[in-house]
Design goal:
- The chain has 427 residues and is an all-alpha fold.
- Among the domains are: 107 residues, no CATH class; 72 residues.
- Helix 2 runs antiparallel to helix 3, helix 15 runs parallel beside helix 17 and helix 17 runs antiparallel to helix 18.
């Protein structure tokens, strides 16, 4: 949590040039005891500022304030109160005891405005937090570090509130502060544009909006920073989903999921699983679209989807795990068709066995989570397995169970037609 503190305990007003000062400049002590106490305060302030644990920083600044009060030097006491309040904000503690002092003695101080913004943001008062960050940015003069911090926090809040037009303006302001390109800001702007895509547009207009985003994603430079890499992977995945939805940008979607998959192992588990699942699904689509269905693409799809399933299982996302089983079952059934066409009897038999097993697992997941649609799809898939094995009674039973789970008239009509076809086949 980035907070700004007043380092120089001798000043009465904020001075950006001395924010990181570590020695006295204007204090004038005559007694040796006062000198000792001042040195103790200075050491405690330094310790507090360098302390990574916010609770421990509160303790150090609290000790400094207790000593400062014995000196009867208002400007030193005020500065210690400022530091203690900043540390309390970082550790989610109340700063109400120090608010009046801070407003009185640091009213023109942009560090205080920034810290108040952090406090209001933590309290969920986002509108006031935005005002505080804007005030801090206005007051900070040539302090580029503060200006960046304010814009970054404003950007995050505006995105959380779905104010994407304002967020884009803020992001563009932030981008101008960097020499060259900043990977995180570049990615933030790309993510904002993704959110601003109008999904109600017709197919051609939607493609016109999404295609440039795909190109920008492909041009994103590689980054070793963990936080930036994870965000890049998320944006690549999300734009890939948009591309897949257009139905005509399959190649672009595959490229984005492939790029995201390459960095997904550095992401948190759930995002890693989602990226791998999408990459696997696109491999299945690619394999299906090729004139001679690609065995390699389906096998790659199964491998990626299995990785995704295990990750979902790890975080106990049972429904997503079931969806992965459904995807694996479909890819295995495609392999079965390929092996049959190539007279690979044993391979076809194993593929059909794996297809059935995956559908059974999906069915169990659907029952565990109450997913009626997945339940219907799993029964319908098992019916296809039975049909291929010429188990017509098993096929009929599965189709009837699928029909029970069907909620849309189109699904019911399709299943009824399959049952009629089955009866003709049996005769």
């Amino acid at each position: 949590m980035k907070l700004w503190s007043n380092f120089n305990s001798s000043r009465q007003r904020a001075n950006p040039q001395s924010r990181h000062a570590s020695s006295r400049t204007t204090a004038d002590f005559t007694g040796s005891q006062e000198e000792i106490l001042y040195e103790q305060i200075t050491k405690l302030i330094k310790k507090g500022q360098n302390e990574e644990n916010a609770k421990e920083a509160v303790n150090r600044f609290g000790e400094a304030l207790a000593i400062a009060k014995t000196l009867n030097q208002d400007h030193i006491t005020n500065t210690c109160e400022f530091n203690l309040a900043a540390a309390k904000i970082a550790s989610d503690e109340s700063v109400s005891d120090y608010m009046n002092s801070m407003k009185t003695n640091f009213d023109d101080n942009y560090e205080m405005e920034f810290n108040l913004g952090v406090m209001k943001e933590k309290q969920g008062n986002l509108e006031d937090a935005l005002i505080s960050y804007e005030r801090a940015k206005t007051k900070c003069g040539n302090d580029k570090a503060m200006e960046k911090d304010c814009l970054q926090r404003k950007l995050k809040i505006l995105k959380r509130r779905n104010k994407y037009a304002e967020a884009k303006t803020t992001g563009e302001q932030l981008e101008k502060l960097y020499e060259g390109k900043d990977s995180m800001t570049e990615c933030e702007l790309l993510d904002i544009d993704r959110h601003m895509v109008d999904l109600t547009l017709d197919q051609k207009q939607l493609i016109d909006q999404v295609k440039p985003l795909c190109k920008r994603c492909e041009e994103l430079p590689s980054c070793k920073n963990q936080l930036v890499m994870e965000f890049q992977a998320k944006v690549l995945n999300d734009v890939g989903m948009l591309a897949a939805e257009t139905k005509e940008l399959t190649t672009e979607a595959i490229a984005l999921f492939k790029k995201a998959s390459g960095m997904s192992n550095s992401c948190r588990t759930l995002l890693n699983a989602e990226i791998k699942q999408n990459a696997g699904a696109m491999k299945t689509i690619l394999g299906s679209e090729q004139i001679n269905k690609s065995e390699k693409e389906f096998q790659g799809s199964i491998a990626l989807t299995e990785e995704a399933r295990k990750l979902y299982s790890k975080v106990r996302f049972r429904n997503s795990e079931g969806q992965c089983y459904m995807n694996v079952a479909f890819a295995q059934s495609c392999l079965y068709e390929i092996f049959i066409s190539k007279d690979k009897g044993n391979d076809a038999k194993n593929a059909l066995k794996e297809t059935k097993l995956a559908y059974q697992h999906a069915l169990q997941a659907a029952e565990d989570t109450g997913d009626i649609k997945m339940k219907m799809q799993a029964h319908e898939g098992l019916a296809a397995v039975c049909y291929r094995k010429e188990d017509f009674e098993g096929c009929k039973k599965c189709l009837e169970m699928a029909k029970v789970s069907a909620t849309f008239s189109s699904d019911k009509a399709r299943l009824a037609e399959k049952l009629e076809h089955l009866e003709r086949t049996k005769k």
